Amino acid sequence: MKFHLQTPGTNLVTGTGPGWLRIGADTYHRSLIVTATSVAEGFAPNGFEALTGDDFAKLLEASPELVLLGTGAVQRFPHPRLTAPLHAARVGIETMDTRAACRTFNILVAEGRAVTAALIVE
Q: How many beta carbons lie within 10 A of that of residue 122, not counting itself?
């Protein structure tokens, strides 16, 4: 799948495939936390099955109104006790496969929304 950059000055997912993501012109091979202004590697280093509540608490650092969780090639749902830090902070979470999360992230960033994407790369 190929995406095209349309809003300069913000992070957008410009490409994705098995084992990689491209944010702007930079390619990543590990899971990421992406906001309109930052990219941080190291989210879910051991994959979806090893997610913890601390992984979700870390997503609050950017003060998002919404978190998009990209769970890899297929949509999977984390246990509610893992996402409790987001619910306690009244931050919404949407769970989808990583490709769908990338598309949704681009749309929300283009709208100027405070969104954080936690993207698992498999």
A: 12
